Amino acid sequence: MVRSSMAPDSRPDKPRRIARIQFVAVSILSIAGVINYVDRGSLAIANTTIRADLGISATRMGVLLSIFSLSYAISQLPMGVLLDRFGERLILGVGMFLWSLTQAATGFVKGFASFAAARVGLAVGESPFVVSAVKSVHDWFDVRDRATPMGIVNSCTTLGQAFAPPILTIAMLAFGWRGMFVLIGIPGMILSVAWYAFYRDRKDVSLNEPEMAYLETSGRRSEPSRITLSQWLGLFRLRTIWGIMLGFGGINYTVWLYMSWMPNYLEAEHHVSVAKTGLIAAIPFSCGAVGMMLSGIIADFLVRRGMPAIRSHRTLLVTGMTCSAACTLLVPYVPGAMGAAFTIGMALFFTYLAGNSGWGLVQSIAPRGFVGTVGTIQNFGSFICASFAPIITGWLLDRTHSFHLTLVICSMVSILGALSYLLIVKDPIVLN
Fold first, then answer.
1. Which tens digit of pLDDT belongs to each residue from 33-78?
2. How would DSSP label each residue in 118-131?
3. What residue spans define the domains of the chain?
């Protein structure tokens, strides 16, 4: 599906109602992104304390961390179809409430089995979030304006990772790790009600002529049709689909490694206390948030200057992932906890510079009615890859008592992802 391009100054003014819908969507999604990743990073912050309290080895903790990413990956497959059929208002609203309720319930687990069940519930609840954001931005923004709002939402998820260490450390020291889980589950339940009350899916809004003109400036859009089973299965026969799954796998492997084990890395390799880890661990993800925001600005700038959207996103993906791999290789050789944190920060800066364009690429290559489906398939493949990061790290840590080899593996996976975007992902998706 190829969309025509227009001169930068040829589009109509943005209608007031469209601007209001955009503001509501991006605002709530941004807050949800912070909450989502604070919740997602909670186990990594309490890693050492929970292992000591429940008698869990590093390998079994790696399994708990991987259970989330694997369950999240599997949940993506039906979630894409559900989003395209029922819309993000309902599906994300229910998912947000479920993940928050499950997070609160984690404070009452008794052992490994109940902890694993709670991680599965958290994963299922969080599974519609990212693709709901992609679908919402795709439906309510013109193609030349999409990368920036996606950058805002994605940078807020990264800020959630940056806020998580100090916030969760303070909560854990004040209320214990069980009280921490209960406390951080409450805001998401409140926000889920706000999302359902104030957001509207595009299919449920009757647009007038100026509003349609604004949204369709970059090319005529046909009404989305519901994806059939044969079309869904047909997606897995396309090289572009396999390319984005493998490519984004390199991004999520890197993110999940650092999000799962970075606090423990600082404690083990640089002998940082739990309290100080919470502060130092905020540095890398703050750098990632800057990379995420900058990615959106650069991508929109390139598209407005005439570069095809697919090419601009692929350029940022390949460049970012390659630079991230180089930074990851340097991490064990940098002296001091602060030096290591800033080097990890540069790795995450480039990873998130690429990551935002990964979602921009989905919006550029997928037909309008199938953005949610294609996005969840990408997430499925990438989180299958990411699910290996925590368990491989835990297994190697039990045997080598070092993070060196895990960082080398992470760098290699990132390079392979960049090669996937460079050599495999080239053409828009066309469904028959």
1. 888 878 877 877 787 788 888 887 878 877 887 788 888 888 888 8
2. HHHHHHHHHTTHHH
3. 16-204+227-423
Residue partners of 120: CB distance under 8 A and separation at least 6: 67, 68, 71
- Count the Cβ atoms, other than its own, within 10 Å of residue 276: 15
Q: Looking at residues 324-348, what average pLDDT do you find?
A: 92
Structure tokens at 398: 């039990």
Structure tokens at 343: 């080097």
Structure tokens at 59: 């390998």
CA-CA distances (angstroms) from residue 35 to 176, 184, 356, 424? Answer: 19, 8, 19, 35
Q: Please state, rounded to an integer, the average pLDDT across all residues of the chain.
A: 84
- Residue with token string 């790290």: 393
Query: Could you read off the pLDDT of 259-290 as tens digits, one per residue?
Result: 777 777 787 777 777 667 767 877 888 888 88
CA distance 68 to 123: 5
Q: Give residue for tokens 């989502």.
A: 36
Supply the DSSP string of 348-402, one letter for each residue. Answer: HHHHHHHHHHHHHHHHHHS-GGGHHHHHHHHHHHHHHHHTHHHHHHHHHHHHHS-
Q: Which of 280, 265, 201, 168 is nearest to 24 (CA)?
A: 201
Task: Tally Cβ neighbours within 10 Å of residue 42.
Answer: 24
Task: Give the pLDDT confidence score for residue 12 in this predicted structure.
Answer: 66
Exposure string of 82-120, with b = 16+ CB inside 10 Å and e = fewer, is bbbeebbbbbbbbbbbbbbbbbbbbbebeeeeebbebbb
Q: Report d(CA 262, CA 316) in Å as an integer.
A: 25
Residue with tokens 């799962």: 260
- Give 16-204+227-423's CATH code, choosing from 1.20.1250.20, 3.40.50.880, 3.40.50.1110, 3.30.565.10: 1.20.1250.20
Per the model's pLDDT, the better-predicted residue between 14 and 318 turns out to be: 318
Going by the DSSP 8-state scheme, the letter that residue 287 receives in this structure is H
Q: What pTM does this model have? A: 0.69
Contacts of 45 (CB under 8 A, 6+ apart): 164, 165, 168, 169, 172, 263, 278, 281
Q: In the chain, helix, strand, coil percent, each to 5?
A: 80, 0, 20
Quick check: helix, strand or coil at residue 41?
Answer: coil
